[in-house]
């Protein structure tokens, strides 16, 4: 019996593999996913630092419905209603960022000829902002354009724009030669809130058409000429 157990022990020791001190080979699941260079970079990574943004000296619009301050500019548009004598600056969602009274053309309707004292109606782009402090109207010496002139690209007619004024009492109203007047403090604020090529929509006037075959009304009575002494008195009064 002892000899049989000794024989079995000897056979077993000869057939079993001999394990060395080397670690067992890695399986496919345990193999590294990245290359050694990437593994080394990941091991040396110390975490994400808080980004440091550059200082932004621009003035932000302190409004609830404005764009994200200083980081994203949302498209804007200007809407002018001549009947209401109102200018609205809106963002792409229609939120009003600015709403101010204006003075528009003294005559109603679409502009058809030069110097007809009408404001062009339609959608135009703003192609420039100019310092107009020393601008004068035609051949006069009246500096009537305020600090800034926002020029509109109106087809067939030039010189139409949004500007300040030397007659703040005309706002709101219908007294201009075709441009859109705003108060000087508002044109300064508006100029800082718009960019080149912003779209400006001027809504048409509500002009009631005249009847084609309107009956003629009674003719006014003839005015009796005044005596010579009364006419002289009136002329003296007009010349004062």
Helix content: 10-25%
Shape: elongated
Low-confidence stretches: 63-68, 209-214, 222-240
Overall strand count: 10
For the report, how would you describe the main beta sheet?
8 strands, mixed
Topology, pairings included?
Layout: H1 2-15, H2 36-44, E1 76-81, E2 86-91, E3 96-101, E4 103-105, E5 122-131, E6 148-152, E7 161-163, E8 173-176, E9 180-181, H3 184-191, E10 199-203, H4 228-238
Parallel strand pairs: 1-10, 4-8, 7-9
Antiparallel strand pairs: 1-2, 2-3, 5-6, 5-10, 6-7
Short descriptors:
elongated, alpha/beta, 4 helices, 240 residues, disordered C terminus
Q: Can you describe this structure?
A:
Helices cover 18% and strands 21% of the residues. With 240 residues, it is an alpha/beta fold. The radius of gyration is 42 Å and the shape is elongated. The N and C termini lie far apart (155 Å). The strands form two sheets. An eight-stranded mixed beta sheet has the order 3-2-1-10-5-6-7-9, covered by helices on one side. The protein has a two-stranded parallel ribbon with strand order 4-8.
What's a concise summary of this model?
With about 240 residues, the chain is an alpha/beta fold. The protein has helices spanning about 1-15, 35-45, 185-190, 230-240, and strands at about 75-80, 85-90, 95-100, 105, 120-130, 150, 160-165, 175, 180, 200-205.
């Amino acid at each position: 019996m002892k000899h049989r157990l000794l024989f079995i022990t000897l056979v077993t020791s000869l057939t079993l593999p001999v394990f060395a001190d080397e670690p067992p080979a890695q399986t496919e699941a345990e193999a590294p996913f990245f290359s050694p260079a990437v593994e080394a970079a990941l091991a040396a990574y110390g975490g994400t630092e808080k980004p440091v943004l550059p200082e932004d000296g621009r003035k932000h619009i302190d409004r609830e419905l404005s764009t994200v301050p200083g980081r994203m500019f949302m498209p804007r548009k200007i809407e002018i209603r001549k009947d209401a004598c109102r200018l609205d600056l809106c963002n792409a969602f229609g939120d009003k960022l600015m709403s101010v009274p204006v003075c528009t053309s003294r005559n109603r309707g679409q502009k058809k000829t030069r110097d007809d004292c009408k404001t062009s109606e339609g959608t135009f782009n703003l192609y420039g902002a100019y310092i107009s402090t020393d601008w004068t109207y035609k051949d006069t010496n009246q500096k009537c354009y305020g600090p800034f002139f926002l020029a509109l690209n109106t087809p067939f007619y030039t010189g139409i724009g949004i500007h300040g004024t030397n007659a703040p009492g005309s706002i709101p109203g219908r007294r201009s030669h075709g441009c859109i007047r705003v108060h000087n403090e508002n044109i300064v604020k508006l100029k800082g809130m718009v960019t080149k090529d912003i779209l400006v929509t001027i809504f048409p006037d509500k002009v009631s058409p005249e009847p084609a075959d309107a009956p003629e009304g009674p003719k006014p009575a003839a005015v009796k000429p005044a005596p010579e002494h009364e006419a002289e008195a009136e002329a003296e009064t007009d010349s004062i």
